[in-house]
Design brief:
By secondary structure, this protein is α+β, with helices and mostly antiparallel strands. Helices cover about 15% and strands about 30% of the residues. It has one domain: hypothetical protein yedk fold, CATH 3.90.1680. The radius of gyration is 16 Å and the shape is globular.
Length: about 200
């Protein structure tokens, strides 16, 4: 499951690509985003104006589990019902590359290997994300949806891949369209394996 990604594009590129018209803080590049770290997300306010915020990756889990929940695997789960119900808690998670670990260790090192996936043209893209409010004064928490992997990602990680939004799906997601039709794998040629 994807637990490492990066955002190495600047704020102006995010503004252009994701039609951000509202607030956009000055942000650094994020070369390695792991669970429980802060990263940019894009949300639409009640008037539909998109803005860039910073949130913490991983939603506090139910019932005493210590690690935050980073991926939304089961869209029917009551745990995610409020986040998926409409537009209020939807977000885009900007990404320039994401990592999956090989299932088998490298024979030479005995360790699993990182495999990075990105757009062939190097352009940023977006995962379908959801947010949860946090304690006052703390950044919101977020997670992103996963689906069955396409053949490219599935050859490395056969269980799941992040839901990547493109074209009209970006607008539909932020407008609160039903999640199930949008939670589908990207075409194989949308991504390529790139050097880490």
């Amino acid at each position: 499951m994807c637990n490492l990604y990066r955002v190495t594009t600047n704020v102006e590129a995010m503004r252009r690509l994701f039609k951000v018209t509202g607030a956009a803080p000055n942000l650094p590049l994020f070369p390695d985003i792991y669970p429980d770290k802060e990263a940019p997300i894009i949300r639409a306010d009640d008037a539909g104006e998109r803005r860039i915020d910073v949130a913490r990756w991983g939603v506090p889990p139910p019932g005493g589990v210590s690690r935050p929940v980073t991926n939304v695997r089961n869209l029917a789960s009551p745990f995610w019902r409020a986040s998926l119900a409409g537009a209020a808690r939807r977000c885009l998670v900007p990404v320039t590359a994401f990592c999956e670990w090989t299932a088998e260790p490298d024979p030479a090192t005995g360790r699993k290997r990182k495999v990075w996936f990105a757009r062939p043209d190097g352009e940023a893209f977006a995962f379908a994300g959801v947010t949860r409010p946090n304690a006052p004064g703390e950044p919101a928490r977020y997670a992103f949806l996963t689906c069955e992997p396409n053949a490219l990602v599935g050859a490395v990680h056969p269980k799941a891949m992040p839901v990547i939004l493109e074209g009209d799906a970006v607008d539909a997601w932020l407008a609160g369209a039903p999640a199930e039709p949008l939670a589908r794998q990207s075409p194989e040629d949308y991504l390529a394996i790139v050097e880490g």
